[in-house]
Amino acid sequence: MSDAKYGFSDYFTTPFALALGATSEMIGVMDSVIQFIGTASQPFATKIINKVGSRKKVSIICSLIQRSLWLPVMLIPFLIGAGDARIWLLIALLSFAYLFRSINLTSWTSWMLDIVPEKIRGRFFAKKSSIGNIAYMIAVIMAGALLQWFDGTYGFTLIFGIGLLLGFGAIIYMRKVPDLKLSEKCKRFHFSYRHFLHGVRNHENHSNFVFFMVFVEFARNIHAPFIVVFLLRDLHLGYFWFSVLSSILILSLTIFQIYWGGFSDKYGHNRTLKITYTLLPLIPVTLLFISPAYSFMAIILMLMIYFIFDGFASAGFDLSAFNYLLETAPKEESHVFIANYRFLTGIAISLAYLTGGFLATQYFEGSSFLWMTGLQILFLVSILLRITFPLVFISRFQPVFHKKSVNGKKLFVNALTTYPKRELVHEAFMLSHYMHKIEKRMFKLSGR
Fold first, then answer.
1. Distance CA 103, CA 68 (A)
2. Dihedral of the alpha carbons of 365, 370, 376, 378, in degrees to the nearest 10
3. Angle 133-257-304 (CA atoms, 0-180°, nearest 5)?
4. Distance between CA atoms of 339 and 297, rounded to whole angstroms?
5. What CATH number corresponds to the domain at position 34?
6. Is residue 331 part of a domain?
7. Per-residue confidence of the chain (448 residues) as pLDDT tens digits?
8. How many angstroms separate the CA atoms of 294 and 433, rounded?
9. Residue 320: which domain range?
């Protein structure tokens, strides 16, 4: 229920802004402000938690405020007529909503880490993630179908209303989860300039990795908000196909997280990180060759290739980056180092959104370069930044735990060809076995 509400609401904020008449620069400002608000809340989020003394209470209160703010969001088309005022009101409301969401996320994460026993934590969160992704995917498809059926901004009012109800339902279930007393570890979960400077001086491997990720996140996200703009405004896909393609990305991420998780455990997070980093510049390449002049099915097939490959590469990179972060952060102060990392990468993402919006509106829209036009030039900029920006630091961080020596070129080729095919065959076999068990059970039930 918690993940489904985001599929009916948060995922469609950019399409909603476009429907209200937002420009690319406004989209960049909106995503930048939302990201910055969430990042800026980190230094004082734990102060609020410590003052209240109950993570459960903080999570419930923040969730109530966050979801309640979606009521005026869904009523914007009825409250204000056409004009930019609607966009700025949307940005203001979403900024407050994401402020409370960020505080809630900090509180909820700490709360769950204390509730779930460490010995089953991996299985628990893996299962939760899988179920959540399925619910999220179904919600996105349903929301896209409703938007296609109910044309105009009224469709957004409907799906945001469904998301609002699901959000309040999730809060009811949250109330049933037991509260736990704050631990000393939780009280140290905050951003600290002192700890960051200490980390730069005394934990070189970790600090080089953090700077690498700051540049990577800037390069990855300079065009991220405008993929939706490109699909809906430039390619005229429609909300249904937009939601279907989005669900393909979610499914791809879910499947390949399993593959890269096993690969990373076997060969090391550092190796996996460097292999998948080489794939990041290739992700937007397909977008450079898509044209509105192509047939509709040709566009859909090219976008399917793009989203599947995006899921394959991003799942491996994000998973190995997170695991490497946990490896390099000093155990006794890991919460503080992770908070510092999130703060810095959050700032980088916020600046990337703002920069992308400025470049798209002021320089690229209405322009052409070679065969590319408009936002495709911004995608090219993102590719070039992914290749050049992080290279300064990628060779400066080393494996923490050394795995057995393997041939680098052979491992790279196998990671992209042999191993994924083997994993997909295994997953297909397990799915077939699981479906057969369900069929036998249904047969027995029908026999009764």
1. 15
2. -70
3. 70
4. 44
5. 1.20.1250.20
6. yes
7. 556 667 788 889 999 999 888 888 899 999 999 888 888 877 777 778 778 878 788 888 998 999 999 999 989 988 877 778 899 999 999 999 988 988 888 787 777 767 777 566 556 665 677 777 788 888 889 999 998 888 777 889 999 999 888 888 888 888 888 877 765 555 555 555 565 666 556 667 778 888 889 999 999 999 988 999 999 999 999 899 999 999 999 888 888 887 887 787 777 778 888 888 889 999 999 999 999 989 999 999 999 999 999 999 998 898 888 888 877 776 655 666 777 788 888 899 999 999 999 998 888 888 888 899 989 999 999 999 998 877 777 666 665 554 555 545 555 565 665 556 565 555 555 555 545 555 555 555 555 4
8. 41
9. 200-402
Which of the listed residues 148, 164, 190 is the one where a domain comes to its end? Answer: 190
**Do 248 and 101 fall within a single domain?**
no
CB atoms closer than 10 angstroms to residue 4 = 24
What residues contact residue 201 under an 8 Å CB cut-off, 6+ apart? none
| Number of separate domains in the chain | 2
The structure tokens listed for 293 are 């002049």
Residue type, 156: F
Say yes or no: 235 and 312 in one domain: yes
The token duo for 88 is 């700025």
Own/partner contacts of 235-238, CB < 8 Å, gap of 24 or more, are: 235/290, 235/292, 235/299, 236/292, 237/299, 237/303, 238/148
Rounded to whole angstroms, the Cα distance separating 283 from 139 reads 25
Residues 204 and 267 placed together within one structural domain of the fold:
yes
Does the CA dihedral 371-376-382-386 come out positive or negative? negative
190, two tokens: 């905050």
Q: Would you say the pTM of this structure is higher than 0.90?
A: no
